[in-house]
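Lab notes, practical 5.
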Amino acid sequence: MKGILYGVGVGPGDPELLTAKAIRLLRECDAVAAPKSAGGRQTALDIASPYIGQDKTILLFDMPMTHDRQARNASHDAAADALCALLDEGKTVVFLTLGDSTVYSTYWYVHKRVAARGYDAELVPGVPSFCAAAAAMGRALCEDGEMLHIIPATHGRTEEGLALSGSKVLMKTGKSVLEVRELLRQRGELGSAALIERVGMDGQRLIENLDELEQPSGYFSIILVKEQSE
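Output from the prediction step:
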C-alpha cells in the first residue's frame, strides 16, 4: 500500500501557531521534508522542530528562489521523485511549508507533480503570514463589506494592485519596498500603510511610518494598506 504525502503549513514563524493537525501529523509520520534555501536556511523545518521526533527521516530539498523556470522545474521534479520513492515504500511523509500550504507555497509545485502521478497528496492549512501580521499590528484586515486583495510585490504589478478598491496586503516587499512607498505616497495612502518584518520570528519589527525606512527591508516583509473610510 502506497503512503500519503501531506503538505503542511507551519505558519509564519512562531511554533505555537502550528495547528493541532500539523502537530499530530508530525508525530505520526515516517519522514519530514522541507525546502532549503541557497544559503542553507531551512526556516520551515526550524519552526516545526519542537514537534519533530529524533526517529523521523529528514529530507531537505534545494528550492532556488530564481526567475529561471528551468531551474525551478528541475528542483521540483527532483523533490517529487524522492517523495514518490518514499510513498512507494508505504511511508507517510509531511512536507513543511511556510505560512499556509495554498498561498504562494513552495510546496504547491511539488504537490501538483506527486498528485499527477496518482499518489495521495493532501493539503493541510496553516496560519497565513498576512493574518499574523494584522494581528501583530492590532489591525483588522477587512471589515464590513471591504474587499481584500493579496498582491505579490515581486512581479511588476504593484501599481495595478494598489489601484483596486479595498484593503491590500503587499507580500514579499523587501527589495521593492522603497518603490512601493513612493507609489503609496503618490496615491495619498502612505498614512494608511504599515510594514512588518519577520512576523512571528526572532527580529520581528513593526514600522508604522514608512518614511522611517532608509533601505530595502528583508525578504519576510509585509505591508498592509487599510482602505480609507469616507
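Observations recorded by the TA: Residues 69-88 form the longest helix (20 residues). Residues 172 and 221 are 6 Å apart (CA to CA).
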